[in-house]
Amino acid sequence: MTDAASAVLSVVLTVVVLGVGGLCAAAFGGVLAGPSVRHGLTLPLAETARLLRQRRRSAPGADLLLWRIAGAGLVLVPLLMLAVVPLGPPPVLDSAVGVVWFNTADVAVWALVWLLGWGANATFALVGAFRFLASALAYELPLMFALTAPAVAAHSLRVTDIVAAQAGLPYVVWMPLAFVVLLVGVAGFSVWGSLGPAAGPDLAGGVLGELSGPDRWLALTGRYLLLVAGSVFTAALFLGGGAGPLLPSWCWLLVKSAVLVAALVVLRNRLVLLRPDRFMEIGWLILLPAALLQLLVVSLLVTVGGWS
Amino acid sequence: MNVVVFIIVFLVLALVAVVSGALVFVIDSMARATYALAISFVAVGGALVLFGLTYPGVITILMMIMEMAIMAVFMIMFMGMNPALIPMSMVHGQRPALVASAGLFVLLVVGILLAPWPQHPHAAPARARQLGQALMGDKMLVMMTISPVMFATIVAGVVLASHRTRYDRFGDDLDRRVASDPQPGGVGR
Questions:
Q1: Euclidean distance between CA atoms B27 and B112, whole angstroms
Q2: Which one of A39, A132, A184, A198 has the minimum C-beta count within 10 Å?
Q3: Are A209 and A126 in contact (CB under 8 A)?
Q4: Interface test with A, best of B39, B41, B62 (most A CBs within 10 A)
């Protein structure tokens, strides 16, 4: 296969994994929400059909340019995140700084969610936007340190190298804290579950509240895609990527990612909503020390114990 | 990469950086000005990546998006502004600002034109090392000492500036088990 053909295959695979993954996550969420399995399974498609036909509405003076950039960006960012992850064939962008690339993409969500709330020109949406930034200040630093642990162990920031370095033992076994902290971060940048007060019901939907029609569809889709991209990346970084017996490697990666996505969807409405003022302390007093402690242990094991 | 492609990509990135940077002063919306500046920095980061400085390039993009997101909060907090109702000028003190920026531009361009750039591509890393040595070499100990002092200064500054001290939080004898804070925290203290 030529280079061009394999690059095209990687791009198509990335888009398909993200799209199908997002659809499955939304359908699973629908099934859990009830009232019937059939209703839940058809919910994503029914919502898509409804929203794409719905007429857009906006408050007077809405900053439409920034608002629409935010919605479109939320769909684009997960694609950028997955571009550095090997899904079977080599990644679209086998970057030597793949981990930092992922981090940059997830920081772009700061700007996008804030703009989503700002552009609407509505009070609750703007309050939601500020809530998101406050949550982000609490989850982002622990997330960054959680990302460094596998990179230290694999002596590389390239995701392909980190996956290859886990051939013997998946990193989750000796970096469980970093794994959990990264998953909290994934929930954070997906405005998900406990970390979703930016779009909370107490704010009438917050950053999502004023959205309608295709704009709303983009934002909701972007949230599911972020969840999927974050889960696939976590599976690559901590669960050994495609490593596993019998099944081919792309299949294993999908299975592991699907388990993570399913867990996040199941936990969505089962944990208490954490307002940013509460989560701030959890982030800085529990998650950050946990991530730093994990990093210390990993660094010691790598330098003194010779682990990798 | 093909030289022509390289030059075209560079010119596009440079154009985006300059145009969106200039837009910051033209646009009358705080949010748009902030994110125009962010786009400018992203283009600069892209140019760094193009030069093969992948890590500094990607980190520049990361830091700048984060900074702009936080900067927007502060700008709106201190200047209170609505995207529709109060369009406001993004410039003030125009004459000194123009003089300062034109002077800086001339200085940088003169520096670029006068610097003895290495002619051979393989000479560049050696020159970069020389530059690093000249900047940091025998001053490493000083820098290592200054950084904790600076950090301590920041912490001390915050402590002095904070109007609520540990005595307000834990009582005059510091014997209150649960701090009395205006905002309850999340870990049950």
A1: 31
A2: A39
A3: no
A4: B62
Which helix H or strand E contains A16, and what residues bound it?
Answer: helix A3-33
Using pLDDT thresholds of 50, 70 and 90, give the confidence band for residue B50. Answer: very high
What's the pLDDT at B80? 61
Name chain B contacts of A277, Cβ cutoff 8 Å: 183-186
Contacts of A218 (CB under 8 A, 6+ apart): A71, A72, A74, A75
Measured between alpha carbons, how far is A225 from A237 in angstroms, rounded to an integer? 18
Cis peptide before A35 (omega within 30 of 0): yes
pTM of this structure:
0.90
| Contact call for B65 and A115, based on CB within 8 A | no
pLDDT digits 0-9 by tens, B144-177? 899 899 999 999 998 888 888 888 888 899 888 8
CB-count burial class (<10 Å; 0-12, 13-18, 19+) for B173: exposed
Question: In this predicted structure, what is the pLDDT of residue A245?
Answer: 85
Q: Determine, for residues A95 and B54 on separate chains, whether the beta-carbon distance falls below 8 Å.
A: yes
Q: Å from B60 to nearest chain A CA?
A: 9
d(Cα A124, Cα A126) in Å, to the nearest integer? Answer: 5
| B184/A277 CB distance under 8 A | yes
Instruction: Dump pLDDT digits (tens) for B93-111.
Output: 889 999 999 999 999 999 9
Angle at A134 between CA A129 and CA A136, to 5 degrees: 95
User: Nearest-CA distance from B115 to chain A in Å?
Assistant: 31
Are A241 and A249 contacting, i.e. CB atoms less than 8 angstroms apart? yes
Tokens of A301: 């094991």
Q: Where are the domains of chain A?
A: 3-303
CB neighbours of residue A25 within 10 Å: 22
